[in-house]
Write a structure and sequence with these properties.
There is one protein chain. This protein is mostly beta strands. The protein has one domain (2-224). It has 2 helices and 10 strands. Strands 1, 2, 3, 4, 5, 6, 7, 8, 9 and 10 form a 10-stranded antiparallel sheet that branches. Strand 7 (160-170) and strand 8 (174-184) form a beta hairpin. It is globular, with a radius of gyration of 20 Å.
Amino acid sequence: MKKLLKTVVLTILLFCPLTAFSSSEGPLQIKNEFPIFLHVNQPYLEKAEIESSMSYSLSHSSTYTVQSSGRWIMNLDMEITELNFRYKRIYNGLFEIGLDIPVLYIGGGFMDGFLESYHDTFGFDDYGRSTRPSNDFLYEVRKDGNLIVQGKKGFGLGDIRLALKKPLITSDDLNLSIQGDVELPSGNAKTGFGNGSVDGGLSILLDKRINDKIMTYWNFGGVLAGNVKGH
């Protein structure tokens, strides 16, 4: 795994010029880090304008969900840190190729003490978090009594995402594009680093400038998520 991650990072650096780092312009990209949704090619806000850029994002989440409903049992007490490498490149001025490579750390984390104090201070329900050992790790999903995911602590590669964006209208005040993407099952589905299936998505992207200081971003689309193929 270490050799694979080094190869991935080296490949990015070789094919991405240092001048291609993305700017601080919008839209603000927020990703749902809930473990069950993390690997289903979930959409996040994109701009219609094509670009050549490279960026890195770091996110951290804490999850506590110990519930059963019908055929499903979910036992989740964990924290996830995701470092996402994102590369975009314009080819011949006609379309944009996108690549997302997430590297994940899954473990018990360090935030339980802070969260317990936060809940106590404001009188919020902790949904049973205080009954579990502090900063302990639990990641198990079952369907009809059968084990689907048995999470494992440590570092791992997530599901890699490829995207193709084609501009339809390009101007200073209005950009319209169509984008298709596919998420490959590169993460280990049995240990919670992927879902084991190919996911796809299609969306229409619109950027509309209101004035010199305000730009709006509109995305319309859908995702076809594959089944979780764990144990």
